[in-house]
Amino acid sequence: MNYLDHLEQHCGEFTEAFPIEELEQKNVQILKFKDAPFKETYTIASLGLLFHPLQTEDDSLMHQEIMMSAEQPDVQDEIIYLLWQLAEYAMRTGHAFDAAEYYPLPEGIFEKYQFSSVYVTSPVYFDESFFLFETDSNVGNEPDTVLPVWFVPIFNLRRNILKNTERINLKIFCLRQMS
Questions:
Q1: Element (H, E) at 177
Q2: What are the tens digits of pLDDT across the range 138-166?
Q3: By C-alpha distance, which of 108, 78, 91, 93 is closest to 27?
Q4: 70 close to 87: Cβ distance less than 8 angstroms
Q5: Which runs of consecutive H residues, i.e. helices, occur in 29-75?
Q6: Is 51 exposed, middle or buried (0-12, 13-18, 19+ CB in 10 A)?
């Protein structure tokens, strides 16, 4: 099974591809899947980012694909643009997206909804078998392991809560280490 098969197994058959020349030159595409993870929603995901190894904080390499889901049809173009920018960022910097990180939104993205950032997480509304793609078939020179990364838009208030939670958790950890 290749990664596209894995995507289609969990998201249904892709319904549309969005040609973005800058990404296509790097063998990356943006695809749309209808009714995933729920009826009346859609998921837009990258395909091909997995061929660009990304470095984690501990200097190991990993392979990722990025995705975002929505219900509102009016934000589709904004999601496509955002995933394009995030894919370009990953390939330019070589850095993997880490869970619980957040990235500020480009100007004009999701302004109608007043979101300030996107939060990095695993695709929690999908079946657990979607969280990690593993194969030993090496179809098309794909890596053996790929981590799907899901972006969720958040409000400024939510971002501040996440920052404060991180600080509190660090303080608790330090206190435990001292005792």
A1: helix 156-178
A2: 667 788 899 999 999 988 754 455 555 55
A3: 91
A4: no
A5: none
A6: middle
Q: Are strands 42-47 and 102-104 parallel, antiparallel or unpaired?
A: unpaired
Q: 123-142 burial string, b = 16+ CB within 10 Å, else e?
A: beebeeebeebebeeeeeeb
Q: How many CB atoms lie within 10 A of CB 81?
A: 16
- The amino acid that residue 47 corresponds to is L
Contact between 119 and 162 (Cβ < 8 Å): yes
Q: Give me 92's structure tokens.
A: 């330019």
In this structure, the dihedral spanned by the alpha carbons of residues 112, 32, 9 and 48, taken in order and rounded to 10 degrees, is -110
Question: Over the stretch 17-69, which tens digit does the pLDDT of each residue have?
Answer: 999 999 999 999 999 999 888 889 999 999 999 999 999 999 999 999 999 99
Can you spell out the DSSP letters for 76-133?
HHHHHHHHHHHHHHHHHH-BPPPTT-EEEPPTTTTGGGT--EEEEE--TTS-GGGS-E
d(CA 124, CA 126): 5
Residue with tokens 């040609």: 19
